[in-house]
Amino acid sequence: MKAGVTMHRRSHMELSSMIVFLSIISIFIQYTAYYFLDPAYLVLGIGGLIVVICTHVLLERSLTYESCFIYTLLILFISILITLLTYRGDFLPTTNSLYGIIIINWFMPTLYCFVHSMLDGGSRHENFNSFYRNVSIIFVLIYLGILVYGNFYQDAFPWAYPMASKQLNFTPFWSIATQIEDYINDLIPLSDILTYLFVRTLTYVPYGYYIILILRKTPKLVKFIALLFLPSIIELIQYFQIPTRFDIDDVVYAFIGGIIGAGLFYLTNGIYRFISGRNFLSSESDYRYNSGSIYY
């Protein structure tokens, strides 16, 4: 009995050591490439490749997605810490690739495990649902932090508010109409209009994705109200806190972004179901998909 416990504990220690070792290797390669290489696509390509390789090694070694989550959490924490140190001092040169490394340290393990689970059939590796839930919680917390900062800090992301007015806007599409008129009169570049539209729309794509994921079994009316809830609350708070940021159009664009996010979830589920024969994040008992029962 004691021998079995000892072997089990030794196996866990070996796996933990491997996770730490692969995390250190990943971070070292990523930031070495960041320091010595200039093209962002090359830096992020090398960084993403090493993350995928390490995730694969851990998954095949442990046969559980839990080890992949711990690895993801560790490299994400270290990369955020390095970014904060760089932002506060001269730890590293500051470029957009620095933030890109944080993104790939979350996205690449998540994507790899998603594809692996879709192709695996759920027979060899365990706890994908727990992995996806945990990495999603990390993403949502960071996402909400950025959303709060961007919407309620007066000087946040000035490039996203190229035409902040001095008055409230309750007139639908007044802001975009004003920008189009300014563009026609050569007062602003086209990029200002595109930035205005894309930022306000794409910001809420993750919100729409996760709202539909969470409420996938609820009536359509509930989903519709949920897609409007967060942007409406944010604009209401801005009305009292930062009146120059209040724009009724932001709710419209946020809803469009939410619809795009919802469509992305349905697309994800459709691809997953088509290849694996089961719904995305289905329970163990739901692995066999019945084509006549789509609960979305």
In brief:
The chain has 296 residues and is an all-alpha fold.
Taken in chain order, the helices and strands follow as HHHHHHHHHH
Number of helices: 10
How far apart, in Å, are the first and last alpha carbons? 48 Å
The tally of beta strands, per DSSP, is 0
Mean pLDDT: 86
- Segments where pLDDT lies below 50 for 5+ residues? 1-8, 285-296
Mass-distribution shape:
globular
Total domain units: 2
Taking Cα atoms only, what radius of gyration do you get, to the nearest Å? 23 Å
Helix fraction? over 70%
Relative strand content? under 5%
Main pleated sheet = none
Report what the structure shows:
- The structure is a single chain.
- It is built from ten helices and no strands.
- Helices cover 73% and strands 0% of the residues.
- The chain has two domains: 1-140, no CATH class; 153-296, no CATH class.
- It is mostly helical.
- It has helices spanning 2-36, 40-62, 66-88, 96-120, 128-152, 174-184, 190-202, 205-214, 220-241, 248-276.
- The longest helix has 35 residues, at 2-36.
- Helix 4 (96-120) runs antiparallel to helix 5 (128-152).
- It starts with a helix and ends in a 20-residue tail after the last helix.
